[in-house]
From TrEMBL:
Domain of life: Bacteria
Molecular-function GO terms, alphabetical: S-adenosylmethionine-dependent methyltransferase activity
GO BP: methylation
Organism: Maridesulfovibrio ferrireducens
Keywords: Methyltransferase, S-adenosyl-L-methionine, Transferase
Protein name (database record): Methyltransferase domain-containing protein
InterPro entries for this protein: RsmC/RlmG (IPR046977), SAM-dependent_MTases_sf (IPR029063), Small_mtfrase_dom (IPR007848)
Keyword S-adenosyl-L-methionine: yes
């Protein structure tokens, strides 16, 4: 078992739970400044160890927290982390919105970013127990969540979702703008693909770039990609 720390919150990360990345930090960094959301009902979708909703709860989010993950062990992990801080959370296991039929929320936070299948296979982010079923160009999971989310948002509700440019990310933005009237970029950070992996798998990277399964920059001998956090609101009627 490993641990992950964000500011003053330390969580245990069990085997079978996705280990938090900079994506979670970027989501938290944006949301902790949105004081108008602190009383919102929150759905943490793809919660993993629960880091996003737990940090927000400890920062002062006073509304009810619900969290789900396709992995039962991840949900159990999140519940244990909440219990450690004497905080309440309703956790359920299931795919995407399946556990939340007939429910709606003020804020849905999707921490399930997709990357191209070929890149997932060579990356250090996924072990044998973690699924990355995002399709060849990394867009399928996020697009499904975007398309289904209006049914689970209250009036005036917002969806927060990440996009990694290790995917054909314009397809995801197009889907979001088709479903929502307002889609805005709220945070981003650039990263360098690990040099050792880039050298070892240059053929995989070049093929993914050629087929537009990923859209990245190549500068100074490095493949540069971004994590981008978007907020969507006002579903189209």
């Amino acid at each position: 078992m490993r641990t992950f720390e964000y500011e003053e919150t330390i969580v245990d990360v069990h085997e079978g739970s996705f280990f938090p990345t900079e994506t979670s930090k970027l989501i938290i960094k944006y949301l902790k400044e949105q004081k108008d959301l602190y009383g919102s009902s929150l759905l943490d979708l793809g919660c993993g160890c629960g880091i996003v909703s737990l940090v927000l709860k400890r920062l002062g989010f006073s509304g009810p927290v619900h969290a789900s993950d396709i992995s039962e062990s991840a949900v159990a992990n999140a519940l244990e982390n909440f219990k450690k801080y004497d905080l309440e959370m309703t956790g359920k296991a299931g795919s995407m919105f399946d556990p939340w039929k007939s429910m709606s929320f003020d804020l849905i936070v999707d921490d399930v970013s997709g990357i191209a299948e070929s890149i997932a296979k060579i990356s250090p982010w996924f072990g044998t127990s973690i699924s990355c079923d995002s399709g060849s160009d990394g867009t399928e999971l996020t697009t499904q969540i975007i398309r289904n989310s209006p049914s689970y948002l209250k009036d005036g509700g917002r969806l927060i979702f990440p996009i990694l440019t290790l995917s054909n990310y314009p397809k995801i933005i197009d889907a979001a703008e088709e479903i929502f009237e307002e889609v805005k970029l709220v945070n981003k950070q650039s990263f360098q693909f690990p040099l050792d992996l880039a050298a070892k798998h240059k053929d995989v990277l070049e093929k993914a770039i050629e087929t537009k399964d990923i859209i990245v920059d190549y500068k100074f001998g490095m493949y540069i990609w971004e994590t981008r956090i978007y907020e969507a609101s006002s579903p189209r009627k």
